Amino acid sequence: MGQFDGKTAVVTGGSTGIGLATAERLATEGAHVFITGRRETELEKAAAEIGNATAVPGDVSVAADVDRLYERVRERGKGLDVLFANAAIQHLARLDELTEENHDRIFDINVKGTFLTVQKALPLLNDGASVILTASTSAERGDERFGAYGASKAAVRAYGRTWANELVGRGIRVNVVSPGPVDTPLFEVFGERADEMKAVVATAVPARRIAAPDEIAASVVFLASTQSSFVHGANLYVDGGMNQI
Asked: Which of 70, 149, 159, 237 is catalytic?
């Protein structure tokens, strides 16, 4: 018996990294997981790897794509018990380098996408459901070139607080997870220097390493489960001490 037997979960950005690791854990614990992402081939491959999963390709910043995702969930007929709004992109640039196009794309995916993902889930969310949003330690650090990304994640954290307050009447818990550096495809923005940058970033983490996606997934599953039944509106740092020490 798994702790999510018979439950339905949605994971956005579910084809790689934290999203994939979380979807795998939820499915292992008995949930049927709907995963979505923009790259159809990778998404279908991930669903096959997970097993108890349905792939629904789409862009969370496009309302029609989010509607299509939830239509598939509705067809299952069991509502929605766990929602992990995780899809995000990263573009690093100083203030004098950041283009309007890149700024808007970051906010479209990271902020508008999170808003659409949760708002359009409301009719499906079962009473007592758990909603988890992915923020970041970058929301507070002010590191060079992380301005737009950090600002987008600060907005996600603000949404988490407000939605926790607004949905408490239905027994729906809303929490935020803020990872530190994680070995995910986001490092691909560095191209051939990705491994070098991982090593450089690790020196700033008290744990002296970056996280594996499954370490973040474990925290998300905790927030999704009844084991965290009195955790509400929280921001759980999973950062190797980066923003703590």
From this structure: 149
